[in-house]
Amino acid sequence: MTTATQTINDLTTQIGTLGVRGSTQPLSRNYSLDKWQNFAVNPAIGQEFGKDLQLSEIVHAANKDELLRDLAVLISQRGVVFFRAQDIGLEDQKTLGRKLGELSGKPQDSALHIHPFTPKDSEKGDQILVCVSAPAKNIGLTFVRSISAERRNKRAQVEDSTRFASKGWHSDITFEPVPSDYAILKIHTAPENGGDTLWASAYEAYSRLSPEFAKFLEGKEAFHEATSFNKYAEAAGITLRTDVRGSPLNSGPGLSAIHPVIRVNPVTGWKGLFVNQGFTKRILDVTKDESDFILDYLFKLVNSNHDLQVRFKWGTGYASRSVGDVAIWDNRSTVHAITQDYEDAERVGDRVVSLGEKPYFDPAGTTRRKDLGLPEPTHDASVLGEAYRQSVSSANE
């Protein structure tokens, strides 16, 4: 059955060009960033630059478009890129967020996201979400851990459902009809111990699917929602934003969307698993029991496979709060989770989230492993199946 998210052509026919990337041709790196030393953190995901590359400088460089386009492609290929000891300010961080998407082909009507938790009178503006784990006022809050004893108790009641840290894996704002392409987080205050962030590769998770199971999931859709935000907002004493949140398609109090289970990243052309424990609630066109079973397995592909994950420890001890480590990731092809293993310490940073295209599945998409000439982890599934058939046949002769 053809669905609204099955192909770019189908999608464009149904809703026009709003929220759809104009080109499906993958982009190639120009390698202009390679004059700065960098290295792959893990084989499947993660790249890191030292402090000799300053994002505040390349945003204003004479060849900034060349550099930022290369950065966008690198992020989409590697999932997440880390930068140590950065002095980039808020305005440059927003400029960087806009340019990464623009130079890699995002729709013109996709701007920077305004998070539902961002107060209208936030001193840092609509497009900066302050990620904070300590008392804060008028700066935008994300799941504040200590505002008051009363509100802390309310939040405990909201969250009293699981004690598995894996519940935190998510991709940013997939409850929006037009979710994020790139996100930029600068942590300027980090605990001496703890507070690490983990990312996992959706490309690699897709490659863990057997070909037959992948075929079943391709074209399937899932329901994403964040109605729990209303409970968090009540506990934190804030009012959610229901106005336009960076795209004409992102507005209202619903905080829900339907997206393909398998998504193709337009920058790379690679297929990835596009479900997450934070916001994906239901696979459509199957029973609830089947949906729960499938989602449980897909979530385990991410949280039980540490070889498709990367863990980043944020730097501490910088001389100024204006300096901090930066992570930039592609939300289309990664999920991430904070490690909440610290107490009585501040963890504060500023996040910019850019909006991309409306998610789609393209049958012409390929896999990261195929493009890189790597063997698929499940290539032996059909071979093993045939071996069982032959063994049964031989036993009955």
Describe it.
The chain is α+β, with helices and mostly antiparallel strands and 397 residues long. It has one domain (8-395): 4-Layer Sandwich (Double-stranded beta-helix). The chain is built from eleven helices and 15 strands. This is TauD/TfdA-like domain-containing protein. Residues 43-348 form the TauD/TfdA-like domain.
- State the helical fraction: 25-40%
Question: How does the overall form come out from the CA principal axes?
Answer: globular
Number of contiguous helices = 11
Number of domains: 1
CATH superfamily: Clavaminate synthase-like
Q: Going across the biggest sheet, name each strand in turn.
A: 1-2-3-13-5-15-4
The SSE string, one letter per element, is HEEHHEHEHEEHHEHEEEEHEEEEHH
Low-pLDDT windows of residues: 1-20, 134-149
Radius of gyration equals 21 Å
Largest β-sheet summary: 7 strands, mixed
Overall strand count: 15
What's a quick, concise take on this entry?
Helices cover 28% and strands 19% of the residues.
Task: Give the secondary structure arrangement, pairings included.
Layout (H helix, E strand, L loop, with lengths): L7 H8 L22 E3 L6 E3 L5 H4 L5 H15 L1 E7 L3 H14 L25 E4 L16 H11 L20 E10 L7 E5 H6 L3 H7 L3 E5 L2 H9 L19 E5 L1 E3 L6 E3 L6 E4 L4 H16 L5 E4 L11 E7 L3 E5 L9 E8 L12 H5 L8 H15 L2
Parallel strand pairs: 2-3
Antiparallel strand pairs: 1-2, 3-13, 4-15, 5-13, 5-15, 6-12, 6-14, 7-8, 7-11, 9-10
Helix pairs in contact: 3-4, 5-8
